[in-house]
Amino acid sequence: MNFTGFYGNEPIKKILNTHPFHAYLIEGPKGSGKHTLADLITNALICDGENPPCGVCRQCYKFREKCHPDLIEIPADIPVDELRQLLAGIVLSPNDAKHKVYRIDGAEKMLDAAQNLLLKTLEEPPEYAVFLLLCTTKEGVLETVRSRCQTLSLAPLPEEVIREHFVKAFGGYDEKAKNAALLSAGFLGKALEIYQSSEGEYAEKSKVLEKALRENDPITVFRIFSFKEREELVAFYNAFSLHVKRRLRESEGNERLFFADLARLWDEAGKGMQTNVNVKFWNTNLARLCRKARRSF
């Protein structure tokens, strides 16, 4: 199988090249590459070329254009009756390719009744049918369903792999990219999201936060740290980290001491954020860290 565009995860590549299976459970957090892997497997299954996916055959073209008739997307919230009707069509041979591929994104969100109905098909599927179940964590999928699937758990990538991708994509690996890689916990998609979302709004918020600290305005400080989603909080963390380090290079005297203290506290917090994902906790903790650094100003 041609794994171009899919980085690391050598055990998964070995499984896919040596142990063909009728159902795969692809597990990984947001940004881990599970959709990239699912696309790769799907494309390879319907490709007519050598070393699939070849990217140039008619089947690959249809897949790229999202119009391949043998790819069936099943929503995780599908009602049981609709799922039963959809699965009844599995007895029909593929329209155009060698395989029919059924994909369920967010499989852990399916109702137990829907998963049990799916289980019946997974037990004895036609030879040409392959199921791809994508999930954030396999624990949300019934054990009986998991037992009928080959589990592919996405692993974090070494920093050098992420660095290599950044160099190819952006021409370098600057401080901003390093921070994104650190906060991504080794997942390339997450690193790219953090890197690309730390402009604009978050850069402006960084300036507002600095002004609030200078003016000893705790209300504004705590108002800034009211993020609802971890992705937003991490993006702001990344933007403010760059802001603080830039201001540290520019400042002198007491101001320099303030930014040095803030940079140290901020970096320590970043390490903790990799293991503790509680957004409410880090909203409060980062606000307090800012207030603590304010005392040295």
Please describe the structure with a list of short key phrases separated by commas or semicolons.
alpha/beta, 5 strands, 297 residues, 55% helix, Rossmann fold
Describe this structure in words.
It is a single chain. This protein has 297 residues and is α/β, with parallel strands linked by helices. It folds into two domains: 10-153, P-loop containing nucleotide triphosphate hydrolases (Rossmann fold); 197-294. It is 55% helix and 9% strand. The protein has a five-stranded parallel sheet with strand order 2-3-4-1-5, with helices on one face. Helix 7 (159-170) crosses helix 8 (175-183). The N and C termini lie far apart (58 Å).
Lay out the secondary structure.
Blueprint: H1 10-18, E1 23-27, H2 34-46, H3 58-64, E2 71-75, H4 80-88, E3 100-105, H5 112-123, E4 129-135, H6 143-146, E5 150-153, H7 159-170, H8 175-183, H9 188-196, H10 201-214, H11 218-224, H12 230-250, H13 253-273, H14 279-294
Parallel strand pairs: 1-4, 1-5, 2-3, 3-4
Helix pairs in contact: 4-5, 7-8, 8-9, 8-12, 10-11, 10-12, 11-14, 12-13, 13-14
In brief:
The protein is an alpha/beta fold. The chain contains 14 helices and five strands.
